[in-house]
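This entry is listed as follows:

___
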Amino acid sequence: MDYTDFSKTGGFPLDSDVLDFNHKVLASAMNWPFRNPDGTYPTVMVLSGCEDTQTNDFINDGWMFYNGEILPFRGSYANQWSASIPSTDGDLFLVETRQQAVFENGQTYDVLEVTRYLTCDLPAGTTAPVGNIYQIPRWTEIVGQRAAGVGNTTSANNGWLPFSGTSGPVAWMVELRRNLLTRLVYLRGEATINVAAVPTPAINYMTLVLPPGYGPSATLSFCAAHDYHGVSRPEDPAIRSISCKILPGSVGTWALGIAPVKPTDPAITSYKVRFHTVYPLD
């Protein structure tokens, strides 16, 4: 790695060019491990942390690679919304703050202590999101895809396997991505519930068979968050939390299951649930 020799005495000629050179050398060395095989870099990916705590969609602290920089992610809730800045669950924002300094020529510039970080907290102003935390790949996933011959982040659909189907009142749109290095499967998707088709009394799980090779090591339970197709209405207690499972299907298969329920509000004719989880591969 290139470097500047600061060991000589006598008054080192330190200027902004020397500082800029060292900054660029260090950034280049730190970024190199994240290059794609074709020499490009992913726009954004998770390096560590940034995991859903499963408590009110809070994403914990972590580190991310964004546009050639390694930036911290500040823990935040992924389900925030503001009338002035409408956002989707998981929207990711870049925040930058600068401290001013007065130069020898009397001019003032925003140059000291430039703080840059990513967060799901809605910043002041009308900042557009730079991505969605639930759709950003992890570095270990990308390495695992390369090891499995799946490709890199420039491949179609970024390594996600889409599939869909209908079971009773449930219409599924699901994506899966597996990492053969860490032996983890990432699942995300949504299900639209046709209320009129939900039986009374409610039955157990309506299921969709998973593709071969994506089964978990054991039965998995998790919850889904609901919305009303963008319609603003009070929260319905009956569908506040929808139960989901990955459970054994027919011989040798695994299935994604959801337990549909009828809302208490008769005006709700359909509702959508969104889900995301990570589980160990069998």
